[in-house]
Amino acid sequence: MASPHILLFPFMSKGHTIPVLHLARLLLHRGAAVTLFTTPANRPFISAALSDTTVSIIDLPFPQNIDGIPPHVESTDNLPEMSKWPRLAIAAKLMKPYFEQTINSLPRISFMITDGFFGWTLESAQKFGIPRLVYYGMSYFSMSLSTVASQSQQLLIDLELDNNKLFMFPSFPWIKFSIKDFNPAVADPECQDKLQSEFILEHVEATKKSYGIIVNGFYELESVYADYWNREIGPKAWCVGPLCLAEAPQKKQENYQTPSWIQWLDRKQEEGKPVLYVAFGSQADISREQIKQIKTGLEKSGVNFFWVAGKNQVEDDDGFEYRVKGRGMLVKEWVDQREILEHSSVQGFLSHCGWNSVMESICAKVPILAWPMMAEQPLNAKMVVEEMGIGLRVETSDGSINGFVNWEKLEKVVKELMEGEMGKELREKVKQIGGAAAEAMAEGGSSWNALNELINELHAERE
Ligand code: UDP
Asked: Is 281 in the pocket of ligand 1 (CB under 6 A)?
């Protein structure tokens, strides 16, 4: 039997792309040939990440005249503001003719894994008789609960909910939700503009008709929700992660130069001072006022911290960096987050709970201060705190889920995690879960087996 040839096409955001790059490695390890589609501006990042592999990378022309998006901006982290992401996602459909032309010229494809936001790839897949699997980068927990919420519109209306009123779904009576746990676009597609709601309906419908879903997680972590999804919702989802474990955390090449922040973390390790890692993913927009509160909270907490500000401008107009000198480090460039989380001085992670950050923190056995900001992050935060018991919630000043956080609340929770008894308990718990994650990915583990089964099933079917 010829080796399988698998086509991957991640959405143009770091959070959707990075795990698919890990998945590419897992597929190569199983003897598959892998072709990965992207856009020209995203190619350098992908090429660099896969430079030591045989993955064939193809970039498709991306439309340049999208209303509200500057030319050559082809990924969410470069958008002037995150609220513009649906325009980027909708414009991606214009790549369809190039996508199909290219497929036509490629060797026979066993199956494709394309992003959930590329619902239009289903039609192409069907045209060429190729099974399509979908990648959303969401847990079973958030996929199941978002679906149940969207199916329960009437229940939610009958409950006459305000933002903070708690309710339960009959299938999950042990969890209390508030309406703000759900992304408004998921809970009520009509509340968004027409184009966006059409886009959501289209990709959700395409997912339903696809062969299956790839989940970045492991069965033992959320078996109740995995079983619920596969029994009650579907299409079948295969749990093949945590994908970040496909690659050794510190892949040091010959010319590797230890970044200054790793040297700083090394020093903290020598001094015996635990460090709080602070990062909110690749795309969150954080207001200036909120940044001020983060600065004050971190400063007053007295803990050692390493803050990756990313695209958010943290200006040093108030002497902050001077005042925290020696115990606080602020970095504005792209870092290797896994390398930081794996550093033994890092003992806590103040995170927006993007699903990759959650997975990476679990694998590094670091407990989380959960501060969700958008998308399905409130559900991820709920899972981290209430289901897994590996984190504390950062409370907002008005009790809402992703509202404003005052420095006092931040200071309190930071101290609790880094210095309190609770922090110790959470660290123990995350060690156990991190161990289970590694077992799932090791030879013979649940994720290892699931990926083999998926390849065998689809490859054999297509031969
Ligand atoms: N990331 C990184 N370096 C950075 C910022 C982000 O390596 O400076 C990675 C992080 O490790 C994760 C991804 O980018 O793999 C972000 O995904 P996540 O789901 O956590 O958040 P998103 O960016 O999608 O909100």
From this structure: yes
